[in-house]
Each structure stands twice: as C-alpha cells, then as structure tokens.
Design a protein that fits this description.
Elements lengths: L1 H22 E4 L3 E7 L2 E2 L7 E4 L5 E7 L3 E11 L5 E12 L2 H6 L4 H19 L2 H6 L1 H16 L4 E12 L2 H43 L1 H16 L12 H10 L5 H13 L7 H19 L1
Antiparallel strand pairs: 1-4, 2-3, 2-5, 6-7, 7-8
Helix pairs in contact: 3-5, 6-7, 8-9
Length: about 300
C-alpha cells in the first residue's frame, strides 16, 4: 500500500514537472507576450519575467519593442522638374501596442517596408531636385508623416525617417558641375571688376593730387626708376621730361634767351627743343649723376 502511494505521488510529481515545463514561459525585458486562448486574444499583454500558459490551449507570441532600423531599397522616380533620380532612405520605428501589431496586420515589418517605399516614391514625385539635395529635413518630416499615419493602426510608431543618398544621372552631374563652375566664374569676374573700379578711383585721386603738385610726379618717377634698377636684370630706358630740362637750365643762373624760347616752344608743342651749350653740359652732368645713382 505504501509503495503504491509513493508511486502515485511520484507520478503526480513527474506530471506536475512536465506540466510546469510545458506551461512556463520567460519574457525578456525588451519583449511583451501576447496570449491567444483557443484562437482568441486572452487577457492582458504579459509583462517581462516568468509567466505560465495553459499547454495545448494557450499560445503566446512574443513581440520585440526595440527600435527597428529598416533600410528602404533605392527607389527610382521622376521629380517635379523632370529629373530621373534614385533615392534610398532608412526608417526607425518601434512597436507600442503589441496586441495591435499581431492582430491588426499580418506582418508589421513587411507592411512598414512597403508603406515606406510607396511614400518615398510619392515624395520624389512631389519634390524638385534642389529640395532633394538641400532641403532634406523638410522631406524627412513629410515622409515620416506619410508613413506614420497608417502605421498607428498597426500598433507601430515611426521614430524618424532619413533620406540617405540621392543618385543622379551622369549627364545631370556634368550639367551641375558646369553650372557651379559658371557661377564661380561669374563671382570671380564681379570681384575682379569691383577691384578694378576701386583701383581706378584711387588712381584718379592720385592723378588729381599729382596734377596739383607736379613735383610729386617727378618723385614718383624717380621712385619707379630706383625700384626697377634694384633688380639689375633689365635695361632701363628713362625719358627726360621737358620740364626737367627747363629746371636745369634755370638752375644755371644764366639761361640763354634762345634756349628759353625753344624750351617754351617745346613745352607748348610737346617736342624737344634746342638748348644752349651750357644747358646741354648741365643735362649731361645730371644724366651722369642719375646713371651713377642707378648703378649704386
């Protein structure tokens, strides 16, 4: 009798262990368990930890609540300004209602992927090429809104959508390169023209200042001569103004009347004048001093 009782207890214990092993479930921290009893949704969503179900009666499906990163395959379309492009993107989403994600849609991942592809094609058709290249933030927000609207019924929320790359035809790339080059050339010419305009204004002011002070022109000429002579790798041809001849002739103290008249006539006609013998000597002496200064 005792042996039969011990055997029965052992059988019951073994059956309990088998039942417990088949009924025990462990839900991880980032998961939720959805239980179906005889095909119908039963009770609340099971929280993380240890839980039990009825074997052969209940069936539990686990749903991952982590953010899913899903790449969208590159979609080819025509923009509003008739440019053929290929655009790919990436979608970040997560499940917020495990029961709806299992009951309301067959495969929520596949549904989100197809909705993202069709929305991306729609965005391409509504946008211009410049918007795809430079105004991606606005396009990302519009794409996120288009995907998130139907995804709410599936128990899924779209965290964010990012356009990754925009592929252009080679002909369009070359056209854009030529456009950028032309724009830079235009800006360079404008800057150069503005510099020439400012330089001409300064030169005009300098010319007016030198016209008021003729000796400044002579000083500038000598400075230029000294700057060129410092290189010692070029031949210098120095013109002698008529005013300099008159100045040297006056510095002699006894100007010749004939030379003075010829100098005045040369100034008026801008032609060289005949000088007196003393004036010629003084000019030659000044030229010699100037030559020595240049050589030094």
């Amino acid at each position: 009798m005792v042996e039969e009782l011990v055997g029965a207890v052992a059988a019951v214990g073994a059956g309990a262990l088998v039942y417990l092993a088949s009924a025990a479930r462990v839900v991880k921290q980032y998961e939720r368990g959805v239980v179906f009893r005889l095909g119908r949704l039963h009770g609340q969503v099971r929280r993380p930890g240890f839980t039990l179900v009825v074997p052969a009666v209940d069936r539990m499906r686990k749903v991952n609540l982590q953010i899913v990163t899903m790449p969208i395959p590159a979609q080819e379309g025509i923009t509003r300004d008739n440019v053929t492009v290929r655009v790919d993107a990436v979608v970040y989403f997560k499940v917020v209602d495990p029961a709806a994600a299992i009951v309301n849609v067959e495969d929520y991942r596949f549904a989100v992927s197809q909705m993202a592809q069709t929305s991306l094609r729609s965005i391409i058709g509504k946008s211009e090429l410049d918007d795809l290249l430079s105004n991606r933030e606005k396009l990302n927000q519009g794409l996120e809104l288009m995907i998130d609207s139907p995804a709410v019924e599936w128990g899924v929320t779209i965290d964010r959508v990012e356009i990754k790359d925009v592929s252009l035809p080679d002909t369009m790339k070359r056209s854009m390169a030529r456009q950028a080059e032309a724009d830079r050339e235009r800006r360079a010419r404008l800057i150069n023209a503005d510099a020439e305009y400012q330089a001409s204004k300064k030169l005009s002011q300098a010319a007016q200042q030198m016209a008021d002070t003729p000796s400044a022109l002579q000083l500038r000429l000598l400075q230029t001569v000294m700057a060129v002579a410092a290189e010692k790798n070029s031949t210098l041809v120095l013109p002698i103004p008529v005013e300099l001849l008159r100045f040297l002739e006056r510095g002699g103290g006894q100007p010749s009347a004939t030379a003075e008249g010829h100098a005045d006539e040369a100034v008026d006609r801008a032609e060289p004048a005949e000088l007196s013998e003393g004036a010629v000597d003084r000019v030659e002496e000044a030229m010699e001093r100037l030559r020595r200064a240049v050589e030094q």
